[in-house]
Amino acid sequence: MARYYSSRFQSERINSSDALQVPIYENDQDLLDGEDGEMMYIEGQMQYYYNGSWQNIKVKRRDGSSAASAALNATDLKSTLGANAVNGSYWYQFNDGSQQQLWTDFTSYAPYNFVMVQRTSNTTNSQYQTGSLNPTDLALAPNDTAPTQVAKLSDLNQRDITTSGTVRWVIAGAGQMWYKMVGDPDWYSDFGVAACCSCNNPNFYDGYATPSSTPIWESGIIHNGGCGGGQNSAGGWLVLSGIHLNDNNYLGGYNGASTGVGSTISPYLCGGGTGWGLNGYVLMSW
Questions:
Q1: What DSSP line would sit under 88-157, residue for residue?
Q2: Are 86 and 94 in contact (CB under 8 A)?
Q3: How far, in whole angstroms, is CA 3 from its chain's centroid?
Q4: String of DSSP letters for 184-239
Q5: DSSP label at 261?
Q6: Total structural domains within the chain
Q7: Integer distance in angstroms from the first to the last C-alpha of the chain?
């Protein structure tokens, strides 16, 4: 049988000048000497030659069951899990190589897939901090038991998730709202102004909607996109994830109870109520 050399590979990246061409060898591989880095398809198994012998190439299954099998996003994870994709806590890997366990919702508003990025507590406003806070809490199931402390992903990791069209699902009390993110400017957490959710704030969003599997987006500028949310075109405040600076006048999240919020109750109740001082959650589609 003729001998062919395949493209070389290094680490997890395959280097090829044109296209990867892997030769097939159907006889005893012990008869075939290779060179380190050479790949062959040998008797039904992709193998590479290293240190004098052929080794099987193992395909990493990113099923989110451990840090070693961390998923790269919730949409790919759902495809990997198939019928076993149930709401729960899964491991993810971010662009910087860090790994984090996050509560994941595949089912509330399918086909959207969401991960928990913040838990809002009515005892504090420390969600303005740009680094991660109590990140292990983000693996906890959201329910009617109020968060006792703020937990959040770092801004860096939230920016990894965010692209144009990413949905930011904000819950405060029984109120909930979806915001469609623009992707530019990048999300950052310390953008607030003391005692004012409508002052000098960046516009992170270009639409809002009542959560639904088929949302009807109110498009255009979201007026005064401050305090982790915004106003509708009539000036009514929607659902906010909390003021984003160190201002002890406004703790927790806010449910504006305006007509723009709609009547759909959050599947993750956290005490109910309107106004400020509410517990809540923030999830993002990924």
A1: EEEEEE-TTS-EEEEEEESSTTTT--EEEEEEE-TT--GGG-SS-BSGGGGGSPPSSSPPSS-EE--HHH
A2: no
A3: 47
A4: SSPP-S---BTTBTTSS----EEEEE---SS---EES--BT--TTS-B-TTS-B-E
A5: G
A6: 2
A7: 48
**Domain housing 47:** 9-56
DSSP string, 51-71: TTEEEEPPPP---SSSGGG-B
Domain annotation covers residue 34: yes
User: Cα dist. 58→48, 83, 84, 209, 267 in Å?
Assistant: 10, 24, 22, 44, 40
- Judge whether 3 lies within some domain: no
3-class secondary structure, 80:
helix
Task: Enter the pTM of the model.
Answer: 0.79
Summarised one tens digit per residue, pLDDT across range 79-129 is: 999 999 999 999 999 999 999 999 999 999 999 999 999 999 999 989 999
Question: Residue 66 is which amino acid?
Answer: S
Residues 128 and 177 in one domain: yes
- 5 Cα distance to chain centroid: 41
